[in-house]
Amino acid sequence: MILFLINNMNNEDKNTENKSYNFINILLRSAMSFVGIAVLSMGAVFLQKAGLGMDPFTAMNIGFSNSLHMPLGTFQLMMNAVLFIIIFIFDRKQIGIGTILNMVLVGYEIQWFSNIYDILIHINLNPFVMIVDVVAGLLLFSLGTSLYMSLSLGSAPYDAIAPIISSHVNLKYKYIRSLQDIVFMVIALMGHGAVGIITIVVAFFAGPLINYWNTHISQQLVYHIKHFSTHPTAKNAGSGIVGLGKVSLMVITRAYEQTTYVKQHLSGYSDQELFDVLKHSEESLNRNEYLRKDLISRISSIKGEIKRRNLNN
Q: How many whole angstroms separate alpha carbon 45 and alpha carbon 192?
């Protein structure tokens, strides 16, 4: 009887731990999704201000909302609602918190950030400004997309359409998605939407940039969220922040080093430059070694925790 009660207490503790883990995990992932959508929306605004096109769906919504004299947020929400109904009927597994956040927020956030842009930036559009807007827009748009897609909290309504069609007509997803983007680009053109060269870039060539953010930022964030959700302590929170900071610093440092290398490689090295390259390489090696030790320590801690739980069970 005593053993039975102890087992019940252990099961209740585990259930409580699981509920706590799920709540914290979903809460943090939802917050990250919210941030990702905000970053995506900021990127869309920079692309809009560059005047060289936006993603097909937003381009279409801007065109028709302007023609109908409706706020972009309201029109985009209406379009998303139509797509949401289709998803709900044919594949509701794709619906999640991220779906709702994306569906409701993106259009309105583009409006808000566009107003902020107009208030803060008073520069006439010229080639230099266009380039800056495009670069900032692509980086932010792809980063935001990576953040919310990495969380597995549901697909954006527009992104869910191609998988549904693909599963029903037995054609490869990439062909369906390409056709979907082309159709929406044509509709956007008909509605005098924000279609341009960047529309094609975002639709067909943003994948590598999104994958880059997935590897260097988003997956790291998801890992730290899971780790913190399992053991929600101040120490783990600090470890996650520090870990993300290290990764971000490493990404920036590597990008800088590679850029410098390319520039110098074209013109040759002086003796001093060779010593500098050697120094930078050694520093990079030390950083990688530090990261390796950090990962080994983390793996050891995880194995220890698994062993402890197995002994308790």
A: 17
How many other β-carbons are positioned within 10 Å of the β-carbon of residue 282? 10
CB 62 within 8 A of CB 48: yes
**Identity of residue 155:** S
Q: How far apart are CA 64 and CA 235, in angstroms?
A: 50
Q: Which structure tokens are listed for 213?
A: 């953010």
Q: Which residue has the higher pLDDT, 161 or 279?
A: 161
> How many other C-beta atoms can be found within 10 angstroms of the C-beta atom of residue 159?
20
Q: Are 216 and 69 in contact (CB under 8 A)?
A: no
Sign of the Cα torsion 4, 9, 11, 12 reads positive
C-alpha 210 chain-centroid distance: 7
Q: Is the dihedral of CA 175, 176, 177, 179 positive or negative?
A: positive
Note the helical H segments in 121-194: 127-149, 157-169, 173-190
Q: Can you give the pLDDT at residue 69? A: 92
pLDDT of the residue at 287: 57
Domain positions in the chain: 2-214, 233-312
Q: What does residue 71 show for φ and ψ, rounded to 5 degrees?
A: -60, 140
- Contact 48/54 with Cβ under 8 angstroms? yes
In this prediction, what percent of the chain has a pLDDT beyond 90? 24
Six-digit token pair at 63? 């065109």
Q: What angle do CA 200, 112, 79 make, to 5 degrees?
A: 55
Contact residues for 121 (Cβ-Cβ < 8 A; gap 6+): 49
Give the orientation angle of helix 56-67 with respect to helix 2-50, to 10 degrees.
60
Q: What is the sign of the dihedral through the CA atoms of 194, 195, 197 and 199?
A: positive
